[in-house]
Amino acid sequence: MGWAIPFNKPYLAGNELHYVAEAIARGNASCDGDFTAACSRILEERFGIGRALMTTSCTSALEIAALLCGFEDGDEVILPSFTFVSTACAFARAGARPVFVDVRPDTLNLDEARVAEAMNDRTRAIVPVHYAGVGCEMGALRSLADEAGALIVEDAAQGVNATHQGRYLGAIGQLAAYSFHETKNYACGQGGALCINDPALVDRAEVLRERGTDRSRFMRGEVEQYTWVDLGSAYAQSELLCAYLLAQLEKLEDIAARRARIAGWYREQLAPLADRGLVTLPHDPAEDGAEPASRTNHHLFYLLLEDLETRGALERSLADRGIQAVRHYIPLHQSEAGRDLGRFGPLPVSEDVSARILRLPMFNELTESEVVQVARGVAEHFRVPAAA
Ligand SMILES: Cc1ncc(COP(=O)(O)O)c(C=O)c1O
Asked: pTM for the full model?
């Protein structure tokens, strides 16, 4: 179906095609050329990340992170059930048992009180997912992890250029993973980065990313020839995709401002519905009053509806108007693999939210009149006057 207003549209910030052509002209279209280095540098310098390695996806960054945890039989990893598959799959592949924990009803992020209850002497890592670009309660999670000698691996797929109490998401845990998939704020079709904030983990991460070889050392002239040293894979992002991505990372603030404007339009337009309790709007951490303040990157704009039926009816009603609104996630503890591989207790918030959430169109070029059209579609569905 051709949508009048799709859920997502790929975006060009300006220099993408020019940079891709230049990467080819420079004679290095594979990996770890100038464009890869430039992307890593921006992530490290802008966000305060120790070392940023560009990867083929956030999934592959999580896979490297999971291997770096060095799991042994019986080891466990704490993560939310309300998340994308890769958060759990990467750790299960590396031999850990995923322990699914419920999310907070306000931010839909890992509930630190439930994390404390789920931890035991087999806990090796906690994986906070910064849902919708809103940071998890990193202070509380860090204390729990430190006490247990566990690592923090941030799943910051949705958290690029957002902060938690003054620190950039991705720069807080020992390890973190970013996504530059087409649906993300900064994108190159498909891509990612592994953020390494513990220097002791850098050398092995380089090897795992380079097909299990010491090629990174060879490229720096530290060894004469490179060879197989560990169990890695082809996790390095293509130089062509880094060229594409660089054009977007150079426009970090422009893109951030666009998304903040779009979220502001949505909030203004949907306020009358929220005031009547018909919809709940995404949590804005800037309103928490914490110092230093936290900032969302407005990755998603979602509505929480009253129940499953209300969500389905609104989804159909928007589709009838050519507006693509989408749902997610089937909680992982209810998925086929999650049921088999995971450990979990009752997860009422994850199940409840999964049945009631609807994501509205959100992309960098969404216009004010399109936002008004979407909000009017929601208001008319509920037979409520839209904002003036
Ligand atoms: C929370 C979360 N983790 C991991 C991923 C996987 O990212 P990628 O598509 O870059 O592998 C996504 C993708 O949407 C995500 O939302």
From this structure: 0.97
What pLDDT, in 10s, does the model give residues 82-101?
Answer: 999 999 999 999 999 999 99
> Which atom number of ligand 1 is nearest to the Cα of residue 59?
11
* pLDDT tens digits, 140-183: 999 999 999 999 999 999 999 999 999 999 999 999 999 999 99
Task: Please tell me if the CB atom of residue 155 comes closer than 6 angstroms to any atom of ligand 1.
Answer: yes
Q: Which residues of the chain register pLDDT less than 70?
A: 1, 388
Condensed to tens digits (0 to 9), the pLDDT of residues 102-142 reads 999 999 999 999 999 999 999 999 999 999 999 999 999 99
Check pocket membership of 324 for ligand 1, CB cut-off 6 A: no
Enumerate domains of the chain plus CATH numbers: 16-249 (3.40.640.10), 252-381 (3.90.1150.10)
Distance 25 CA to ligand 1 centre (A): 31
3-state secondary structure the chain: CCCCECCCCCCCCCCHHHHHHHHHHCCCCCECCHHHHHHHHHHHHHHCCCEEEEECCHHHHHHHHHHHCCCCCCCEEEEECCCCHHHHHHHHHCCCEEEEECECCCCCCECHHHHHHHCCCCEEEECCECHHHCCCCHHHHHHHHHHHCCEEEEECCCCCCCEECCEECCCCCCEEEEECCCCCCCCCCCCEEEEECCHHHHHHHHHHHECCECHHHHHCCCCCCCCECCCCCECECEHHHHHHHHHHHCCHHHHHHHHHHHHHHHHHHHHHHHHCCCCECCCCHHHHCCCCCCECCCCCCEEECCCHHHHHHHHHHHHHCCECCECCCCCHHHCHHHHHHCEECCCHHHHHHHHHEEECCCCCCCCHHHHHHHHHHHHHHCCCCCCC
User: Ligand 1, closest atom to CA 192?
Assistant: 10
Q: Which atom of ligand 1 is nearest to the CA of 57?
A: 10
